[in-house]
Amino acid sequence: MFGADCEDLKLKQTIDGKDKWINLGEVVIQLLEKSTTRMFQAHNMIFPELLPYYISSSDNELAKNQDQMRDYLRELIREKSYYVAKI
Fold it and tell me: Least C-beta-crowded within 10 Å: which of 2, 18, 51, 69?
């Protein structure tokens, strides 16, 4: 991803209220799975206007983990942009 060595990369994620360091591939899989299943929660299917809001504790955990992944990607892009600008 972006030419980065991600083989042994671990990101901090919150799972069941506990912070854990997980391999990048597992993080991506978990985020995709939880984001997809969130769309099919009963309250979101009945009231789709609630989708932009993270109401439950599992939703808040998902939002926190998504933010951590976004922060990692932003930092990676910033590093690569700086490297390309120096060339």
Answer: 18
pTM of the model: 0.79
**Amino acid code (one letter) for 26:** E
Say if 68 falls within a structural domain.
yes
In a domain, 4, yes or no: no
Number of structural domains (the chain) is 1
Q: One-letter amino acid identity for 74?
A: R
Residue 1 domain-assigned?
no
Q: In sequence order, which ranges of 6-56 are alpha helices (DSSP H)?
A: 24-39, 42-46
Query: Residues 50, 70, 56, CA angle at the centre, nearest 5°?
Result: 30
Of 21, 12, 18, 15, nearest to 71 (Cα)?
Answer: 12
pLDDT digits over 7-18, tens only? 678 999 999 999
Q: Which of 25, 3, 12 is nearest to 64 (CA)?
A: 12
Residues 6+ apart with CB under 8 A from 38: 44, 59, 62
